[in-house]
Amino acid sequence: MTATVEKAPTAGSRGSQPPVPEGATTITVKIRRFNPETDTEPCWESFDVPALPTDRVLNLLHYVKWYLDGTLTFRRSCAHGICGSDAMRINGVNRLACKVLVKDLLAGAGKHTTITVEPIKGLPVHKDLLVDMEPFFEAYRAVKPFLITSGNEPTRERIQSAADRERFDDTTKCILCAACTTSCPVFWSEQRYFGPAAIVNAHRFIFDSRDEGAEERLDILNDVDGVWRCRTTFNCTDACPRGIQVTKAIQEVKRALLFRRV
Amino acid sequence: MTEIERHAFDVVVIGAGGAGLRAAIEARSRGMRTAVVCKSLFGKAHTVMAEGGIAAAMGNVNPNDGWQVHFRDTMRGGKFLNNWRMAELHAKEAPERVWELETYGALFDRTKDGRISQRNFGGHEYPRLAHVGDRTGLELIRTLQQQIVALQQRDFQEFGDYEAGLRVFGECTVTDLLVESGRVAGAFGYWRESGRFLLFEAPSVVLATGGIGKSYKVTSNSWEYTGDGHALALRAGAALINMEFVQFHPTGMVWPPSVKGILVTESVRGDGGVLRNSEGRRFMFDYIPEVFKEKYADNETEADRWYDDPDHNRRPPELLPRDEVARAINAEVKAGRGSPHGGVFLDIASRLPGEEIQRRLPSMYHQFRELADVDITREPMEVGPTCHYVMGGVEVDPDSAASGVPGLFAAGEVAGGMHGSNRLGGNSLSDLLVFGRRAGMGAASYVESIGQDRPTPVESEVDNAARWALAPFGERGPDGPPENPYTLQMELQQVMNDLVGIIRRSDEMEQALKKLDDLGRRVRNVMVEGHRQYNPGWHLALDLRNMVLVSECVARSALERTESRGGHTRDDFPQMDPEWRHQLLACELEHSESGESRADRMDGVRVLRRPQPAMRPDLLALFELAELTKFYLAEELAEHPSEKG
C-alpha cells in the first residue's frame, strides 16, 4: 500500500491508514497528474489502494487523497451521479467516477488490476484531474438555454400535454458533466465546435412546446461550428452517464434544420 | 500583505443553490448589482440532489388542498415549534413560486389536463408535491441557472456586458464576513483554483449556504455542507436557533459500504412502497404516535385502500413525518429485526408493476442497479436513517429574511425557524424559492434604505482574515503537533455520529463537547502541504473550522433541551414536553473584549433561551382545539375561538 512514487513524508500530510476491509484486493490506480506550479508536462503517478468490488472509482481517489497524497485534486460533489462534477477518463473512456464500480474493472482471476484515471480531454487542465470548464459552459450559453416566449406571462402554469412534455424529456436529464462533449473526436480536434452537450441543451428547448425560440437556436446551430460538424461516432451516447440518446438528439436537430420543422 | 482582488457590489449572495439563485434573481431584478459566490461550479449545488418534489398547495390533483391545509401540515410536522409566520408565508406563496418556475421554463410531470401534477408525500394531507420524475431538484437548479443566463444575455444586449447586473463567482469560497460598526461591510474569500484572495465590498450579504451534514459520518449531504453560512453568521454576531434539530432521513442506502448514506427518495413510499422488518412485518403500524392516530391507518387494509380512496381512508403510517419513521427504523434494528446490513427493507417491488416503478422512480431504479446490484422491481431495498437536513439556522425576520446584524440576510437551509423541529419532505424546495425571493427583496430594500451611507471594510480586518486563512500553511507554526485535516474531519464525523446522532443522552453529549473542544484546538494546528493553487487539503482545513464551531452549537443546544421533539430525540427525556414548545434555543458567540480578530473565533458558543412568539389567533383557529391541547399548555390556548366560546 505504498505509493510507487515515494515522497518524503510532510508534516500533517497523511493520516494513519484505516484497516483493510475483508474481501479487499490491492489494485493500482494510475493517475495522470499535473501541478502547474511545479510541472511543465503532466506525468503518471501510481498508487496501490485496497479496494472492495463494490467500491467506486471515486472511493479509490478519496483513499489516495485522504491517506496517500493530500494534494490530489479532482472535482466531486453529490457522489451519486446527479451533479455531474466528477467526469473523468477511466480506463480510456469518459465516466463519472462516482458511478463506476471496481468490480466492473477487475482484471481476470490471478491478474493484478490497474485502473487508469485521466482528466477529460479537450479542455485545458488546471491541476491533476481538474479541467477548465469555461469553454464548455460558453458553448452551453451560446445556444440560448432558456425558455423564449412572447406575450404576457401567465399567472398560473402553462398547459402542456403529457405527449408534448414527453417529446423533450430525454434531453432535460442533462447534468452538464461534459462527458459527452469531451468524448467527441471532432471536439478534440476543433474546440470551436459547440459539442454534444450544447446541442442537447438546445434540443431541450427547440422541442419544448412552450418555447418560441427554435428558429433562433437553429440558426445558431446551423453555423460552421454547429451540428453539421457531428460525425455520428456515438461516443457521446456511450459516454452519457444519464443514458441520454445524445446522437439521436443531434440527429433530430439536424433534421429540424433540413426541414425547418420541429 | 498579500495581493487582494477587489469588487464592489450592492448584494453578495453566498451559495448558488435554489435559495441563492432565487435571491440573486430577485435582487438583480430590483436593480441591485449582484454577485453570486459558490464553492462548486455554477449549477452543481446540493439542491440538485432533491428528488421528491416541491410542496405547494396548488390543488391540481385534489382541489380540497389550500394554503391553510399546507400550513397545518407544516406546523404539525414541526411539532408546533415552527416560526408560524414563516410557515404561513411559505404555505401562501409556494404555489406562486412553482407557477413562476414553470414560466421560467421548468419541466414538470403533468396531469391528464396538462396542469402540473402533484404527488403524495410524508406528512402532507393531499397530493402536493410538484415534481419531474425523481429529479425535481436538478430541474429547479437548471431552470434558475437558465434564468440567470437569460438575464445576463439581456444585460449584454443593453449594456454590452454580460456581468453588468449579475456576476457568478464559481469555485470561490467566502471565509469571513466583514462587519463595520455592527453592519455588514463585505465578504472575504478566495478563488479555489488559484488560491488568490478576493474582497467583496458590499453593504448586504445573503447567506444561502445550505446545511451542516458533512459533520456526520453517515449523511446524504455532499462535501459543500460544512456549515459555512452558519459559522459566518455566528462570527458576524448573528444568532442561530433550533440547532438541536437535525433531520435524519429514514431511508438512506445502507449497503454496500461505499454508498452508505446516499438518499432513497421518500417518493418510493409516496408511490406505495412499504417498510418491512426481517420478519416481513409492516412495522410502521406499531409506531403511530398518539398525536397522529386520527390521521394514520392502523391496519394494512385501510392503509392500502387510501391510495385509491384518500377521502374515506386514513393514510398509511409509512407516510408519517420523517422523524417518526427514522426513529421506528432505528428501534426495529436495535430490537434485532433489521436487515442483513443493519437497515430495514423498503419494498416497492411487490406493490407496483416493474414498468411503473421504472417510469415513476427512474433514478432510484438506476441507483440501486448500478451501485448495489439490486433490481428494485424484483427485490426490496435495504435502507436506514441518514443525516439529511438541519432545521436550525440563522434567526431571521420572517418577512425580510434579515438576521440580527444589519445587512445580513439568510434563506434556505441556513435559515432557522420555518420547519420547527422537523421538516416535511417537499417543504425544502418550496422554502428555497419563497424565502430566497424574500431575502433578495429584503437585501434590496435594505440597500435602498441606507442610501450613500455604506460601511467600508476596515483594512486591519481584511488583513486578519487573510492571515487566518493562510494559517494552515504554517507561517506562524502550530502550538502542538501538526494535524492532518482529513484525519480531523473523520474524527469529527465519528463524534457527531456516535454521540450527537439520532438518539441522544446527556452523558454522551457531555463527552462529545469535550471531544469537540479538543478538536477545536487541534484544528488550529492543521498543517497542509503544497501551495495555494487548488489545494484540497487547505480548503478542507478552512471548512473544518466552520464544521467544529457549528457542531458545538448542535451539541450544546441538544444537551440543553431536556425533551424529545422532531429531529431531537433524548433517550433520557423520551417525552415531548409542552413547557418546551414555546422555548427556542439560540446560539451566539460570546463577545470577546480582548480585541481578538473576528475571523479567529472558533469557540465560546453560548446557548440562550428565547420565547417563541405566540401564534396569531386567526392561524390558531385553523386547528381543532383537541389537537392543540396535545402540544400546548392550557393557558396558551385561551385565544382559541372554541375556548372563548
From TrEMBL, chain A:
Keyword ATP-binding: no
A single MF term (Gene Ontology): 2 iron, 2 sulfur cluster binding
Keyword Cytoplasm assigned: no
Keywords: 2Fe-2S, 3Fe-4S, 4Fe-4S, Iron, Iron-sulfur, Metal-binding, Oxidoreductase, Tricarboxylic acid cycle
EC numbers for this chain: 1.3.5.1
Obligatory cofactor(s): [2Fe-2S] cluster; [3Fe-4S] cluster; [4Fe-4S] cluster
Domain of life: Bacteria
Region (Disordered): 1-24
Gene Ontology terms: cellular component: plasma membrane
UniProt GO BP: respiratory electron transport chain; tricarboxylic acid cycle
Family (UniProt): Belongs to the succinate dehydrogenase/fumarate reductase iron-sulfur protein family.
NCBIfam families found in the cross-reference section: dhsB, PRK05950.1
Protein name as it appears in the record: succinate dehydrogenase
Organism: Longimycelium tulufanense
Organism taxonomic ancestry: Bacteria, Bacillati, Actinomycetota, Actinomycetes, Pseudonocardiales
Automatic annotation (TrEMBL), chain B:
Designated name of the protein: Succinate dehydrogenase flavoprotein subunit
Top-rank taxon, per record: Bacteria
Family annotation (NCBIfam families): PRK07803.1
Active site positions: R322
Domain FAD-dependent oxidoreductase 2 FAD-binding stretches: 10-429
SUPFAM superfamilies, A to Z: FAD/NAD(P)-binding domain, Succinate dehydrogenase/fumarate reductase flavoprotein C-terminal domain, Succinate dehydrogenase/fumarate reductase flavoprotein, catalytic domain
Pfam family of the protein (one): Succ_DH_flav_C
Keyword terms, alphabetized: FAD, Flavoprotein, Oxidoreductase
The keyword Protease is annotated on this UniProt entry: no
Names of the cofactor(s): FAD
Occurrences of domain Fumarate reductase/succinate dehydrogenase flavoprotein-like C-terminal (ranges): 491-588
GO MF annotations, alphabetized: steroid dehydrogenase activity, acting on the CH-CH group of donors
Species this chain originates from: Longimycelium tulufanense
Alphabetical list of InterPro entries matching this protein: FAD-dep_OxRdtase_2_FAD-bd, FAD/NAD-bd_sf, Fum_R/Succ_DH_flav-like_C_sf, Fum_Rdtase/Succ_DH_flav-like_C, SdhA/FrdA/AprA, Succ_DH/fumarate_Rdtase_cat_sf
Keyword Oxidoreductase appears in the UniProt entry: yes
PANTHER family attached to this UniProt entry: SUCCINATE DEHYDROGENASE 2 FLAVOPROTEIN SUBUNIT (PTHR11632), SUCCINATE DEHYDROGENASE [UBIQUINONE] FLAVOPROTEIN SUBUNIT, MITOCHONDRIAL (PTHR11632:SF51)
